[in-house]
Amino acid sequence: MKIRHIGQLALLACLPAFFSARADDAKLLTRPQLSSAGAKSLLNAAEAEAKQRGMQVSIAVVDASGRLLAFTRMDDSQTGTDETAIKKARTAALYHSPGKVLAQRISQNQAFLATLPGITAVPGSCPVMEGKYLIGAVGVSGATDDLDNAVATDTATGFHS
Hints:
4-stranded antiparallel sheet; single chain; alpha+beta; 4 strands; 17% strand; Beta-Lactamase; 5 helices
C-alpha cells in the first residue's frame, strides 16, 4: 500500500514549487525591444524621406530608455544638429510624447515641463510604439520644425516589426 501512494505524494510535493514559479512570473515584465536592425531600419526610412523632401538633417534613433542605437548626419547638414537630434529623440522616449506635443503644452501655461531633466521640448521627435509598448523614438534636426516633425512622425508611425 505504501508504494501506491508515493506517486501521489511526489505530485503533491511539486505543487508548492509550481505555484512559487507562477508568483515569480509576476515580478518580471516581458516587453518587445527595438533591435539594432530595427533601429537601422528606422534610420534608413527617415533618411530616405528626408532626401525625398530635399532636407539635410541629423537623425537619431534611441531605445525605450533613451540610449542611442543609430545616428546619421546627412551631408551638408548643420553641425549643431547632431546633438539636437539625439536630445529630441531622448525626450520623446523618456517622456513618451512627441516633442511637438510637449512644446504645445509648455506654451499653454505648463511651463514646469521645461524644467524636467533632459527635456528638449521642440517639434521633430516621435516615440516608436509596438502595440501598447514604447520601444524607442526618432529625433530629426536641421530643417524647419514642421519638416523635422513630419519626418520623425512618419518614420515612427510607419514602423512595423
